Amino acid sequence: MNLFGTVLTYTAPSANYRGESAENRAVIQKITKDRFEYAIISPEAIRNALRETIKLLGLPCNRERLGMKAGKSKGEGEDEEKQQLAVKFSEYPDPKKFADDFFFGYLMAIKGKEIEKLRKEKGADYDLKRDSIMRMNMAVALEPYRHCQVFTQSPLLKDSPWKPGGGEQKVESALLLREEAFTPFQYPFALNLDDCKEKPDWTKILIKAIGELNDVAGNHARSYFEFAPASVVIRLTEQLVAGYDTYGFRIEREKLNENNEKHVFPEVIEGIKKGDYPGSEFYIGGKIIKDMDDASIKELEEKGVKTDRNPQKLLEKVAQDAFPSK
Questions:
Q1: Contact status, residue 24 vs residue 173, Cβ threshold 8 Å
Q2: Alpha helix stretches (DSSP H) within the chain
Q3: Which helix (H) or strand (E) holds 141?
Q4: Residue 135: its pLDDT value, please?
Q5: What span, in angstroms and rounded, lies between the C-alpha atoms of 297 and 51?
Q6: Count of structural domains, the chain
Q7: Residue 80 domain-assigned?
Q8: Which of 52, 243, 254, 293 has an alpha carbon within 20 to 30 A of 203's alpha carbon?
Q9: Are 209 and 27 in contact (CB under 8 A)?
Q10: Residue 115 neighbours by CB under 8 Å, 6+ apart
Q11: In a domain, 105, yes or no
């Protein structure tokens, strides 16, 4: 059995997932689609946030994010440590013990003495690599980037116990330019439930975490952009592929210039109504159901579709049907 899903977030301003800065301008990463640029967020950023979320929900995790450290200077026998985020593993990766190793996999790029040390502790059959069970793809904005930019100002640092820039040069207050996008994002994910059957309770919590996802590429805590679903479409099927456009969410507006957004997924909704897809395999929830008229909801439910106005409750149904309680 395979689980395929697409999440659509709420619309909000975002400066998340920046690329290389151009002088004082913070640049959002983008891709080109149909001659327009669209803001993106990588699946790696989403998976990292999922690791943190399942940890908050009580699952054992091996990785721990470390903050920036001053490190040692070259005069103390080590290269000067760069100020950057780092990750610490509490133990060797162990999918049976740690949920993040189980769902998201790992790669141990080691050799020489480290290999010998590993064999002594874990044996010659220990796997140096594990693929991610949780398959994800890039989150893409629904609205094209409109070259929106905002100015902020960094204050001049005076009379403080440290000097910016190493104290070697005068650092003035500066105007900072940052790109912004006002858009929802959609992203697909997939799980092979046979790969998850060893840890059904962990998998239920992972599905719950999708409904409570936050802190994805948060732009150094400047942006609060929830990645929990406003709308979600799930298919639970024996098929090896989703069978539809996994980036199929669209936004309709009843009148131009009115902020009256309607979530739709035309390919799946019309496909179920016309018999292209078995309705019994689909779960549809959130704003897409709130925006739908009663007759359409009734027609979908008569086809076997499970619906819910609350996306978190819908994901609970998905988890329960994927792994029924004994």
A1: no
A2: 43-56, 99-104, 113-122, 193-196, 200-211, 266-273, 287-290, 294-302, 311-322
A3: strand 139-141
A4: 96
A5: 35
A6: 1
A7: no
A8: 243
A9: no
A10: none
A11: yes
**To 5 degrees, how large is the angle CA 244–CA 248–CA 253?**
150
- For residue 290, is it within any domain? yes
Enumerate helices (H) and strands (E) in the chain, giving the number of each: 9, 19
Interval 301-311: pLDDT, tens: 999 999 999 99
| pLDDT at residue 64, as a whole number | 84
Q: And the tokens for 181?
A: 């996008």
Residues 102 and 125: their CA atoms lie apart, in Å, by 17
Output the pTM of the full model: 0.88
Over residues 100-125, the pLDDT tens digits come to 999 999 988 888 888 888 888 888 88
pLDDT at residue 72, rounded to an integer: 59
What pLDDT shows up at residue 94?
A: 92
292 occurs within a structural domain: yes
Q: What is the mean pLDDT of residues 127-143?
A: 93
Report residue 81 as tokens: 């440590």
In which domain, by residue range, is 297 found? 2-67+87-156+173-322
Res. 58 pLDDT band, cuts 50 70 90:
very high
Per the listing, tokens 């959002």 go with: 28
What SS3 class is residue 316? helix
